[in-house]
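Supplementary Methods. Inverse-folding protocol.

Structures were first reduced to a discrete structure-token string of length 272. This string, shown here, constituted the complete conditioning input.
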């Protein structure tokens, strides 16, 4: 991640192997019946990550974004759970990115899809990674959809907000390839950051780019004003975009009012 003087910040990243008792878990997310999280932690290091609160359940003292736990028995546990037929939709993943870089080595997500193919369960994937292209043939063989989280179309800004994630330009290219393969795709504009990524013309540009690439739906989600996320974003804004700090701080003080304002901004952006 760039520092104030433009140098790269060295990130020490740790990988732990662990075991799990359950793989397919009930979900409280509307429209999702089950969730699969083959990893705990994430190497994308998004400064606004809502899942950072999971760090206290990991048993590790490292900062969220500096470690990943790999559930090495995940496939065996999932296979056992799938012996009893299930119905509904399963999400990969709800508190981690199932296609973060470590997936290239361990392949847990790919093996999950292989088990899910004959299960009859619908699969919903939300990711920031174009690694999902690797599994296009598996996804074509099942009822599946792939969503890409895109916070901004500006690759330089994205590198600051999501220093470990593939760039938005790569995500859109992957989305287009999946759409051409006949896989349902969509874009999740999240989070919309007050004063930084919420200009109507910027949100309109994401919508247009997503639609051109073949996304069938574009959804928006305002920033969740968790203390850790607010602190990280405020520091970044103060360093690089001090003129945006007033708008950001105002939204932090009045989150309900900002959410209502964002509805109007989104409505306006769709007419841009």
């Amino acid at each position: 991640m760039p520092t104030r003087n433009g140098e790269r910040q060295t990130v020490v990243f740790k990988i732990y192997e662990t075991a799990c008792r359950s793989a397919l878990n009930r979900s409280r997310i509307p429209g999702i019946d089950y969730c699969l999280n083959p990893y705990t932690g994430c190497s994308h290091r998004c400064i606004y990550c809502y899942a950072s609160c999971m760090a206290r359940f990991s048993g590790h003292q490292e900062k969220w974004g500096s470690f990943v736990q790999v559930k090495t028995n995940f496939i065996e546990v999932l296979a056992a759970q799938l012996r009893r037929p299930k119905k509904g939709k399963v999400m990969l993943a709800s508190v981690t990115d199932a296609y973060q870089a470590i997936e290239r080595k361990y392949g847990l997500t790919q093996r999950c899809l292989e088990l899910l193919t004959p299960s009859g369960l619908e699969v919903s994937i939300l990711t920031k990674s174009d690694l999902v292209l690797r599994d296009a043939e598996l996804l074509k063989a099942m009822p599946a959809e792939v969503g890409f989280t895109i916070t901004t179309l500006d690759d330089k800004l994205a590198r600051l907000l999501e220093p470990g994630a593939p760039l938005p330009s790569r995500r859109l290219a992957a989305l287009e390839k999946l759409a051409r393969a006949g896989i349902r795709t969509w874009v999740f504009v999240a989070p919309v950051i007050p004063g930084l990524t919420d200009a109507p013309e910027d949100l309109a540009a994401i919508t247009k780019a997503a639609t051109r690439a073949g996304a069938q739906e574009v959804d928006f989600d305002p920033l969740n004003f968790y203390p850790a996320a607010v602190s990280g974003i405020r520091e970044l804004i103060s360093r690089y975009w001090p003129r945006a700090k007033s708008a950001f701080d105002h939204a932090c003080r009045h989150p309900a009012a900002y959410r209502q304002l964002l509805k109007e901004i989104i409505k306006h952006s769709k007419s841009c």
